[in-house]
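Mods, move this if it's the wrong board.
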Amino acid sequence: MSALIDSAALRCRDRGGALSLMSVSPLDRVGSRVFFVDTWSMGLVEWTRLEGGQVEAVVAMFVNREHPNSVRITPSRGDGGVDILDRGAGPEGGDVVYQVKRYTGKLTPRQKKDIEDSLETLQAELQTEKRWESLTVEEWYLVTPWDPTPETETWLQGLGQAGIKKIWHGLTWVDQQAAKYDDVIDYYLHDGRALVERTHAEVMALLGTDQIGPGLTVPEVAERLEKAIKTLDHDPHYRYEPHFGEGTPPPPPREGERPGLVLHCMDAVEGGRWTSVDIIARCAASTAERPITIKGTFKAEPDSEFARQLEDFLTYGAPFTSPEGAFDGEIDAPGGLGGPLKGAIIRTGPTAHQDLGKNPDLHLEVLDPEEAVVGEADVRRVVRSQGIMGGARAVLEETNGLFSIEDRYDLKNSQVHRSLTFGDFVGHPVAVAYGAMKFVSQLHSPNRLRISVRHTPPARGIIDASIGFDRQGEALQYIGAVTGALETLAFLQQHASELILTPEFGTLSREQFSSWHRAGKLLRGKELAGSYPDGQCLFVELGSEVTPTEGEDLQIQLPLTVCVGEQKVDLGYQVAVLPTPTLLERRKRDDVVVHAFTTPDRRIRWRRDDPEIPKTATKQP
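Not the wrong board. Structure tokens:
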């Protein structure tokens, strides 16, 4: 078995609709056949007969399932309850906090004091704790299986400071969730967890060719498998999606491809049958309530690239992917999918609900020694991580994905290491790509970097003196070459009505680059001169016969176009000037007249078309 761990996304959607409260009978197995018997029964939960810890565990999971993006949080000072945060879920886009309590009857003075302390602790930490500086709490819910009296409701509304709306979710709300999320009840209060573990083994048996049995049709096998999966669907934390086939197994899902995917397991025999299971988290709290843990040992050669990656992971929390065969250990996973790992590949990455800090959308400016802005870019903080060895890491990504800046802070030695990674420029408008590369090209001393919150006055930002990057000469050459090409294309864009897209520079000919620079010089008003080979003449196709005047120049209007990759871009017109030409001959061909000219010293000039200057002739398109 190989396992691919991906903690990048922990989102899910409500299943929708209410389900009956049920309990499953044991699975009976006869020979190679598996029988699933549904014997579910409806019943109400007697909250007053449960232990306090059971009440809080079940009710907290109700909140998490109803609000899949909500996460458990830990106040600095414990108060015996469970705090749950749902960022951005407020009516005005603010944050919502749920306080879960185990109270099942009329509140005692001590219980009221605990509730009051919970709210006061939250409001105090919003003012003093750096970790909560990005929170704007709009609503605070008290969730407990007891409906308040009018007097108790009035008491609740009088607690805390103004500005946060207080709401009570009591027994009525809790019972509604018990009917909707009966899998939570069965898992926490009955034998649901053990049943899920057993049923998964039966599902894997059904997926094996040796367990199907003779004479079964495809619909019969599919029906049995569907019944088994329905039983697995009673896991309140995860959803299981089995797949099977023969031949070459499909590649594992890419990072971010499957929202909520936390584990992908596959069993395969080369050239034979394969089975795989995707485990999808139902909500953000799933991995906290039923974590997937891995224990084992990495094998890394001293001074190897993988050894360096492990060191960076421990120091800064930087992600890594281990080489094949570098990890042996075991995994503890839900649904009976745990077990030993031999020669596994381990990949780490950011979680979907990481704290990006306050105001992650930033505006960057490069200032020269005279404080003039010579480059700017909008970025977003997409990663913040810390290592167990005391370092920290932050990644800023340009809004179009054109580059990323990564800072690694060695707090122990008071050092900062800054690196730059480029995205894919191909297909982006050249003006956008040039703006990004112009910014990057100016990131060097003695320039300075100014950082401000986007949509605020940049002058009120802070100055970052650490503007340099860890980069080599090849990187500098690449930045210079790409910036120069994009600068030329961005200038051409100012004279074209068609949107010019950035091409794949590595596939272009030298002639294309030269044509851009030539067109740019003409559009800037420069006159260009050239010559044709000795012993040859100039052939020009015109719409009518032209006889040059002796001693005067012949001016011919021509389209000015360039190719940018596969694009043909119209930039207006240019004028070819033939100084005092001699007409050798002319011939009519179809609807044009071909003229053969020579000029003194074989010279010819080009300039941008000026509508105020009359032309002698216009070349046919």
